[in-house]
Task: structure prediction
Amino acid sequence: MSEQANSHRWPSRLRFNYGFLLEATLGTFRVTELDYPDVHAEDIILRPLKGKITATRTSEGIYISGRLKSKLPTECMRCLEPTEQPITIKLDDLFYYPPHLAPEGEFVVGENGFIDLAPLIRELSLLALPIQSLCKPDCQGLCQECGQNLNEGDCGCQDDDIDPRFAKLRELL
Result:
């Protein structure tokens, strides 16, 4: 993304200032309630995003826990129609402070005391998606011959269960 385009982006709604916890005694916590109509977590959109997050001061940084509920736009694997998949996101991660003491690849509290949960919520959202997203449990899918969405009605194609390689055997019957 260009420098100019990046400067016009709004700050993440999932960025929280927990700097005050860094000066607090161990065990101090803050509960944050989320009730957003929609949230951009990097390249995905969650609509709505609701739940509670608890940030607790530990000896290694700030421990984030909580449970969020949302819906993630996806595509039905049978009929390819757009659908929304309900998901539950369980937060259970430590953000290390000071950052230079964090193990490689772990989340850190920024020097300014901010924690951006967008990368973590994006990752957990994608992991919460079922392998097979369906628009409805009894989705009929697409016709294998013509591609018609069978949820909208019958396509009229002949149902020929015989493999073309065995067509000659049909003549023997």
